[in-house]
Amino acid sequence: MAEAQNIPAGSTTAGAIAVAAESTVATRMSAPPSFDVADFPVPHGREEEWRFTPLERLSGLHDGTAVATGDGVKVAVEAPEGVTVETVDRDDARLGRAGTPVDRIAAQAYTSFAQASVVTVAREAVLTEPIRITVRGEGGVAYTHQVVELGAFAEAVVVIDHTGDAVLAANVEYVLGDGAKLTVVSVQDWDDKAVHVGQQDALIGRDATFKSVIVTFGGDLVRLHPRVTYAATGGEAELFGLYFTDEGQHQEHRLLVDHNQPHNKSNVVYKGALQGEGAHAVWIGDVLIRVAAEGTDTYEMNRNLVLTDGARVDSVPNLEIETGEIVGAGHASATGRFDDEQLFYLMARGIPEQEARRLVVRGFFAELVQQIGVPDVEERLIAKIDEELEASVA
């Protein structure tokens, strides 16, 4: 099966759409989604979905040799009044509703966790404080499963904070009832040797709004797979991402927005900065507009700022469009070096070089940091960006 042609960057209206000849999304998966590990062959690195990932650095998550240990991670949930937090067994009917594992590691995680955490926000509850989920690595191997469910017309902010050292395969589900509004901030601030592979599935109800902000700084290897599907019409998804890739780090974000229902919206904006020899960032953005998804309005963008020599970026946006009856669809991707003219402009006005570099990078990330909406998290991330820049000139 041949790959679909990419729609040119920029907005495309219904009158000018060329329908994709073949399936971009289907051809990049070596096996269909499944909860059974046996349905996925052990990857060898030549498959489309694994070709950018250094398999030898996955610590056995991909081939079944990574065995869970008691000192893998510790998960804690801090929730305001009106939120129910439960620890459930594998047979709980609420597990697996938002999505199905799409690769061997996600399936391994689903079949290997002992118990799952389910956080439920009641119908029409409007939280004034965020739900905070901390995932602290303790040096071992872990498989985890988390469900966050909002009842109809509920509103909540969830912060998931990953720190410490671990080898972790994790699945996270977000289930939004009709008219619900959920903002999720997932921070990957791991120690240098950590490995984190995760699939994050969101199922968006009628007229519901989902905003995801993924921030990745630490870890030896981080590979995240956010996915969105719609349960009905009128839903809106905003997927934002910020990553800062240092020397030797591999950070990979692979997104899919599946417009499977009519009259829904999506907007994707990911930005990354890279510095140091062997820094490698991968961004794969897939948007699928199915035949039934008339009235879709979607756009995706990826921007990368390369701060030093020796860093590498792979950025692949894809649109697959099966109907011409849409409002608009487009994508854009760009990678560039530090703007010397902008730096010179600031330095000519008496700003020291390091401070000028900091201001330029801060400005590059500003629109994404502002999407977080949690002041203490925003302040921490700005401080982290400054710390990364200081390390580059140390």
UniProtKB/TrEMBL annotation:
It comes from the Bacteria. InterPro entries: Fe-S_cluster_assembly_SufBD (IPR055346), SUF_FeS_clus_asmbl_SufBD_core (IPR000825), SUF_FeS_clus_asmbl_SufBD_sf (IPR037284), SUF_FeS_clus_asmbl_SufD (IPR011542). Residues 137-364 form the SUF system FeS cluster assembly SufBD core domain. It holds the Pfam family SUFBD_core. NCBIfam families: sufD. Belongs to the iron-sulfur cluster assembly SufBD family. This is Fe-S cluster assembly protein SufD. It comes from Streptomyces yaizuensis. The lineage of its organism: Bacteria, Bacillati, Actinomycetota, Actinomycetes, Kitasatosporales.
